[in-house]
Predict the structure.
Amino acid sequence: MTSKNIDAVARFMQSGVNSGVFPGAVLLVSYKDEIVFHDAFGLADIYSGQLMQKGSIFDLASLTKPLSTALCMMKLVSKKSILVHNTLGDVLNKEEISKKCDREKLNISIDQLLCHTSGLPAHKPFYKELMAIPKIDRRNMIRQLILNEPLVATPNQEQIYSDLGYVLLAWIIEKLSASRIDIFAYNELYQPLGVNDLFFIPLIEAKEDLKKIDNNNKTDLKRLKLIVPTETCPWRKKLLRAEVHDDNAWAVGGVEGHAGLFGTALAVWRILIEIMRLIHQQDSHVVGGDTLRSFLAKRGDFEMVAGFDTPSMVGSSSGRYFSPSSIGHLGFTGTSFWLDPVKSLIVILLSNRVHPNRENQKIKAFRPKIHDIVVKSILG
């Protein structure tokens, strides 16, 4: 990327700050395994005036799904601990299945949960009900509430992007691994790859001791200061910082399959570059390449694959130039990534667009434009 092209990308990112798309953001671009652009723009905190930094830590929101939950499931499939066609009924025992659970739900497969074809609703504000019970019981309760929830479509007939399916996937991962999903992800994925800046923040631990905000319990207050605040929450009645933005994930303690992961742009890139290498059939000691490629294979006409999104035919957030075989994901807080294996291109955009409130929707128009500018700057 030439200095002229770098300037064009930087100017457009700065225009996002100036026009109120987000208070601040970090953009990382890699091409052919090399980082060609990595810079920070604007403010991390509009109240203190804290500047955004390249090492700022973001609430990654739904990037948790591909970067934690789906990868954990790939690991278990690679180890032959489970098959993607196994069903909820295969994994759950009778004591774990509520009497209100529709029997049809027990035939939902792991693959259908991963691909959002389970027929489960997109979202339910369970946190309102969960707040009335003791914290220790909430994770089990949200799982039972999902099992009790009526399906809104016949499994495998429609693709409905669902947080609820990923809560169930986290439950399955924890049953099979005998480990909480954040600990399993760290021990089996992030640590072997040397990725230290992807972590969950268990809220009970964070309340008791601000130093305990990652799975190693070695994080100091310096890292805490790098965490970008999100929303001034109307019902928690405070600015959210170092606690997950998603309400359901917050209510159950900060660790879930659909949200709760925090990280830097560089940490996200280190995971994505491993995925890129696996797609290109290079070896990995973390996840089997055949398993990953099977996860990324499209099922019929559905756009989403197991754990990831792919470019829409019209109006994709990846813009106009990413290949059809590209994979990506968006996060509600203003985060996203797109990986194009044909162009060997990765674009990671992490922003605090919900700071100070979630009503700001300008990023929807901004995302495809920045991806178009990046592709044209690199490939002409």
Observations:
- The radius of gyration is 20 Å.
- The mean pLDDT is 93.
